[in-house]
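Let's practice the habit of predicting before peeking. Look at the sequence and jot down your guess about where helices and strands might fall. Then scroll down.
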Amino acid sequence: MSSDDNPVPDASRVLDALGEMVVVRGADGRVMRVNAAFLAAFGGRAEDWSGRWFAVAPGLGEPGQARRFDAAMQTRAGSRFIEWAETPLAGGGAVALGRDVTAERQARAAASEAAQGKTVFFASVTHELRTPLAGALGAADLLRETRLKPDQHAYLDVMRASTEHALKLIDDILDLSRLEAGQLALQPEPVDLRALVEDACELLALRAAEKGLTLDHVIHPQVPERLGLDPARVRQILFNLAGNAVKFTPSGGVLVEADYVDGSVRLSVRDTGPGISETDQARLFEQFERGVQEGSGAPGAGLGLAMVRRLVQAAGGDVGVESRLGSGAVFWCAWPCEPFEPAPAARPLRGRTILIAVPSPLQSEALAAQAKALGATAICADEPREAMRMAARLRENLTVILSERWAPEARAVKAAAPQARLLALARPHTKDLFSAAARPTGFDGWLVAPVRLSSLAAFASSDDRPAVRADQREPGSAPAAAPVRRAGADQPLKGLSVILAEDDPVNALIARTVLGRLGAEVLHVTDGRAAGDAAATGAYDAALLDLRMPVMDGLAAARAIRALTGAGAGLPLAALTANATEADRTACLAAGMDAFLAKPLNADMLADTLTGLCAPQNRARLA
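Done guessing? Here is the structure:
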């Protein structure tokens, strides 16, 4: 076949066949050629455009460098947004392909406006929901200080737990809306990941123990001493993943692991639960989706896992789940972060052998990993008799960790290896059974699960427990519950006169009651203007300002008080809010407030805040 039978179309016909607009410019930047799509959009004939400047285009770029630019242009269809992709030509000049992106721009703008509106809506609704819930929680705290029967205490605990759960859901919904709108920025700082994991596991340990589960953690030795993390968000991730594992695991245990691999933090939570079907795995991380874990009798988490995914993705990472029905599940997440300090090099248990005799495989695995991280050799026994045989063979430089379930075998284990150090592994609510006064024969000490690395290092090789200050938690133990302040106890605010600006009657009642029990005299007003008028008298020592009030809100009231001259100008101000967000805190400080308190008011925190702000020399009047 000759070339005449298959003619090559000329350049004009090729360009006209393209759906996109085409502009060819010469080396001097003037238009050389346009195509039919361009003429359909802008009118005229091809020769009308030849030699003209393409006014909306920037100057020609560097040779070999392609680029994109958008331009708002007047077309035959009206004002349109055109996106141009320009490619330089070998002999000079460039060819640009344009497409109409007006509809996409309008859709993005509408989506952005909708997202902003949704964020404002969520912020308003969640505040309105938090206010009565904070009132209910505050009222429960006040009721807790009265004389109640045991069954009434139980009902009160259920009410508090339900209210706290509702508040957490509200926080998650608000955070999700902020993430979607791009308004929730992560705030990394140098953080000890080991401490974050240990604290989170200790707080969840009591809940796990109530279900008869073990809850343990492993922080691998390559984890740096300090990492660039947002501590609040890491806690949120840990509580969601580990909390779900505890909730949906009927028996066995949960293991939390932290690692640092190739510049990324990796957190994983493994459980011995019933597993998750592939169908549920595919949608577990979608917001408001709720899968059902086989055999758990309860719906799987949807909102919390969606939050985990959004937070990890915001940090540039990813999340996932590995599970089979009947074989438990592993939830993991990983994201890049920079180390501030290298991994600790200390190996205080080098040369020592740790014999771990506990019935839980997950717990045994966790303790072995902790021991190896400290430089020890770790071996495991599945039952007490095996532990006796191993202990008798090893003897020297040996520490045996024996489950509290096998405490009756402690004397026999100790007899098999008299020189070994024998530690009981207790749970948070059973540790008192192993104190020096009540300790079963054979034991030299005890550890509390989940075991902190520092506790294992301190007690695995020491014959004496180090002294613990009164203000410290005992290593390996769960944090003590905050003391309940009883009516008639000491009154640290006695002699203080405080303005309380709060329009919600329930929260006002709670705040007045708490302040009165602390010894303060209270002037209650329901709007910010009245608070400013009272501050101007100079007769008060401090003011508590709700952020949302009629007539004048708390921020405006703070600015008005700071603008006063003379009496009241330097009055200590503390914000009261149901939404304790970082944005609220920043706005309060900018308005001139000195402190930031979340509802419901905590009596100890309120007392500490006001006594710190109201030094004797700053008081308006003294008792």
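How did you do? The longest strand covers residues 78-88.
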